[in-house]
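About this split. The held-out portion is used to measure sequence recovery: a designer receives only the structure tokens and must propose an amino acid at every position. Recovery is the fraction of positions where the proposal matches the reference. Here is one held-out target exactly as it appears in the evaluation file.
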């Protein structure tokens, strides 16, 4: 076998070949307590990247995502972002899921003038992160209104309110309390990641509420529903969008039957949605459509448009191009036009569980 000698010229061209991609970063929960979300996000992102590259990529080069695992924590998110900015020197980074993680990192992205975009984090405080920060997922302020309207439409004049003790849970609960006109007979937070919520359920059961608004995640929600059912506490559970997953139904079993929730809704009959659904099934035949996968998919296609239209692949040029590209951009999830805070609008629908399946109303 002929030995290959790396001359200065050869190494230079080799470096150019390796650099023949346009890279953006992604801080993702690929391990830890919310990795059940991260795995699905990554699949949706990779599907969109594949489509972008098949359509010509970014200015003729392939788009590449540099993933960093944040271990599902705020500190892990900070470390991952710092690596993507300082070592990888990437002008665009996809922000982490969970509002607490996003809020821990957005000041760094803003300070370093790195375009930072999210597809899941909903805390209302994200709207004040800065001019380099965007999200294609609606703010808690909108979802809080949706949950309050749901409780009132179902004629619950009294509810108990419980929620995860983090920025997302607290922000959503505050938005709910601001809009709900009924009486809250009990209110408390709880920690995420626990295996036993029986003490919280006993606290709820003491008041015997007809309905409980539980602003929760998949694993926590599934555990609480199952344990409440075992303790013969079966109020009407009202949930938000973060719990809307077949995985929650699987974890809760029969206890999930009849729960009702809200979610940011978009057309499931459009050609864009049908394309996404078909393409996802083709690429991942053994996987179900992931929660919030559509938002991640849309985010990549919007970023691709902005990157292709940017005068240069610098953060300032990309930021200006992203604002412009978003105006009138119609994705699977609808209109992704950014407002002055880098936020998008939304309307809210209702979901429930019937015969072990999630039904959208």
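Reference sequence for scoring:
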């Amino acid at each position: 076998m002929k030995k290959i000698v790396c001359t200065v010229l050869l190494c230079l061209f080799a470096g150019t070949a390796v650099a023949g991609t346009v890279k953006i970063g992604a801080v993702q929960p690929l391990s830890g307590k919310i990795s059940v979300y991260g795995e699905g996000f990554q699949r949706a992102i990779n599907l969109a990247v594949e489509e972008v590259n098949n359509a010509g990529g970014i200015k003729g080069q392939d788009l590449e995502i540099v993933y960093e695992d944040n271990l599902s924590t705020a500190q892990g998110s900070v470390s991952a972002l710092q690596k993507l900015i300082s070592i990888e020197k990437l002008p665009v980074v996809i922000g982490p899921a969970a509002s607490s993680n996003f809020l821990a990192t957005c000041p760094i992205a803003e300070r370093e003038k790195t375009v930072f975009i999210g597809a899941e984090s909903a805390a209302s405080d994200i709207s004040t992160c800065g001019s380099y920060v965007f999200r294609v997922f609606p703010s808690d302020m909108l979802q809080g209104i949706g949950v309050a309207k749901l409780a009132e439409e179902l004629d619950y004049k009294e509810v108990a309110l419980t929620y995860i003790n983090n920025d997302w849970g607290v922000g959503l609960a505050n938005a709910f309390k601001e809009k709900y006109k009924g009486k809250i007979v009990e209110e408390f937070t709880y920690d995420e990641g626990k295996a036993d919520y029986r003490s919280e359920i006993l606290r709820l059961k003491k008041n015997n509420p007809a309905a409980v608004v539980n602003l929760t995640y998949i694993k926590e929600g599934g555990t609480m529903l199952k344990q409440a059912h075992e303790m013969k506490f079966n109020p009407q559970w009202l949930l938000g969008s973060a719990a809307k997953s077949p995985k929650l139904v699987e974890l809760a079993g029969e206890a999930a039957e009849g729960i009702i929730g809200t979610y940011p809704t978009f057309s499931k009959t459009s050609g864009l949605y049908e394309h996404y659904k078909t393409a996802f099934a083709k690429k991942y035949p053994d996987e179900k459509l992931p929660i919030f996968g559509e938002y991640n998919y849309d985010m990549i296609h919007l970023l691709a448009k902005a990157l292709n239209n940017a005068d240069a692949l610098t953060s300032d040029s990309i930021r200006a191009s992203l604002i412009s590209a978003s105006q009138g951009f119609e994705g699977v999830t609808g209109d992704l036009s950014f407002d002055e805070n880098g936020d998008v609008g939304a309307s809210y629908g209702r979901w429930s569980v019937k015969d072990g399946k999630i039904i959208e109303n």
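Annotator remark: Confidence is low (pLDDT under 50) at residues 1-19.
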